[in-house]
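Batch manifest, entry 17 of 40.
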Amino acid sequence: MPPARNKLAWTIGTFFGSGFSPKAPGTAGSLAAILVAWPLAQAGLDRWGFLLLGIVALVPAIWSAGIVARESGRKDPQIVVVDEVVGQWITLAGAPRMSWRSMLIAFALFRFFDILKPPPVRNLERIPGGAGIVLDDAAAGVYASLVLFAAGWYLY
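Output type: structure tokens
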């Protein structure tokens, strides 16, 4: 009989089930991050708040990703999307201001860098366990955040 799943880890790792999307679970996770970010931004959370949110979320993200990977028997299961959430929130730290336009651009930039995985982002995938699952997306978020920040000088 297989061991019982850690429900909290699966809830966090799949970001409340968004990782179970039948198509493009990573994109679904990024979209879920934006859907959570929008009301937070409307409540006054700024770029520094999103940076802090992304950094604080690293610990439960790494923990949950590692457990889901181990319990599912996969090195980097597609259902784990909390890494996309962390990366998306880090990307929002580069927004010059929080608006639907900056969130849309942040979404597109993060997905681009998450798929492209420019050096040294791809190398971070080699780190074992949950850290390898999450840190490459956090680094992609840093790249996307820097581009969003630079673009902000021209967009606003």
